[in-house]
């Protein structure tokens, strides 16, 4: 059975997502493309791994 997140859990995940996006925007603004690319590759791999499990 799939459990739905509570409002608190959902908002906590949104806050984490906001911080992640703000960090990535900062890297982009600072033209730190190599670090941004590594971060996005890690994020993508985490999503792929999560979908496979």
Could you give a quick summary of the protein structure above?
By secondary structure, this protein is mainly alpha-helical. The protein is built from 2 helices and no strands.
Characterization of this structure:
The longest helix has 23 residues, at 7-29. The protein has helices at residues 7-29, 33-52. Helices cover 81% and strands 0% of the residues. The two termini are 15 Å apart. With 53 residues, the protein is mainly α.
Main attributes of the structure:
53 residues; mainly alpha; 81% helix
Oligomer type: single chain
- Low-pLDDT stretches are none
* Secondary-structure element pattern, one letter each: HH
**Beta-strand content bin:** under 5%
Main sheet summary: none
The separation of the N and C termini measures 15 Å
Count of strand segments:
0
Number of alpha- plus pi-helical segments: 2
SS class? mainly alpha
Large-scale geometry:
flat
Mean pLDDT: 94
Radius of gyration: 14 Å
The level of helicity is: over 70%
How are the SSEs ordered, and which strands pair?
Elements: H1 7-29, H2 33-52
